[in-house]
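job 3f2a | input accepted
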Amino acid sequence: MQDESGNTDRTILSRRKLLAGIGGSVAATSFSRKATADGEWINVVDAGADPTGEESISPILDALTTEDGTTFYFPEGEYLMDDMFRHVGFNGFELRGDNATIVPAPDYDGRWLFKLGTYEEPGEDLYIEGLTFDFSADETGLRVVQAQVKDDLLVQDLAVTGRHDSGKYGPFCFDVTHPDGIGSIENVRLPDGGEFSENTPGDINVGPTGILVSQYHEGKLWVRNCDVGPWPDNGLYCSTETGRVVVKGGLFKNSNITSIRLSGDYSSIHDATVIVDNQRDNDTNQRAIRLDGGAYNWVENTDVYLKQPNGRAISIQNDVKWARIQDCRVVVEDGAPTRAICVSPQAGKVDILNSEIEFNAPGQALHLEGPSSADADPVYVLKTTITGSGDGSHGRHAVRAERGNCLFDRLDIEQTGDDYRRGIKILGDGCTLKWGDYNTTHIPIVNDADETTFHGVSARSLDGDQGMKILDGSSGVELTESTIHNGIWEDGEVSVTYDGNWYPER
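job 3f2a | predicted structure (506 res):
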């Protein structure tokens, strides 16, 4: 099996403007053109390329000059390629299409069409736009563009039509290899996805990824308004440990491992939509968003819809040092038991702010794993709501807080499902809950930890059970100025301080 790193061996970006955009807000950034009078503009048809798709253009491309500043222009038409075009170590190169479609030859058994730079010989100042790659023939698909540049990468308006069903590399790989380099990928569309390798003649492990940002990426890369999925591996996979990737907008659907998989310090997702609403036979764990590692990962103003859930909405993995989920909406419809937001046990600090979770399935809306000690890296949940008809058939509680030192400030929970559906269970020591409303079918709040503080909370069972249960062995618990309908069930020997509470009967 081979992996997808893919390494076996003229519009120029205004870097100042783009760096300003990435370093500050995520507002749109502009690009400026340098003069191209000193570069050569080559119309490939004028140079002998066949625009009817009958004759391969690969020999024509190989014979053309590739001096720095060269532009290959593809007029409207269909172009057949039966070999890889490779260009490395350049400083200034463009591929520009005008309603141009490129078709891989049926008998071409290679894995690339355009390899522009490598991690050992990266290019610089690369611009690609306006090309469509046609995978509609049976057993067709390969890496159509692999671009590895030190700096100044701009890719716009590329598309793949037809399902990738060859079992070769996924269609795109983009890396900025220098730590100070920058690039942008805009309006790249590959909605038809790819087939699992076991159903193809190829040998890629599992199957192809749609857009890969590999371990060789060390700079900063925007991914803007792309349409991705469904892919058998990942839709967008950013596997860098040292680089930064910023996803801005776009639609990501139904990839098997993850639709957006992100890592790297300060990598983030903004204004995106992620949907899981269809499963193929091999789609066994379709996570929407997975944060793999790095500090200050941020998911903001993003909508996640699990309409046919068989994986989690947002997973925060162990190597993440600090993550923030902010102003997001997550909807999980009825289906297989799952979790909306899951924090792994060794992940660092996590903030969940101003977000809405509609959870209509068995499982947890929030599952916070981690050390149970009161000095654990905290999870802060602020101004967040959990609603829906989730039931208790696979985990009674909508929120399971195994981590200590968590803060739930103005968390509101309403879960109306049956099977003893509850609101929150506190298992980590030193947690605080304040100013939240908890309304669930069964007991809304269950405490099984020490040094828990409740202040200004309201808890009501829709079936008339007690509003709170404190389990045997809980000590140092404080409950103040709260409204607990039908009182509190102290289940065993507990140590609780009460002050200024109200216990209305139903």
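job 3f2a | DSSP finds two helices and 45 strands in the chain.
job 3f2a | closed
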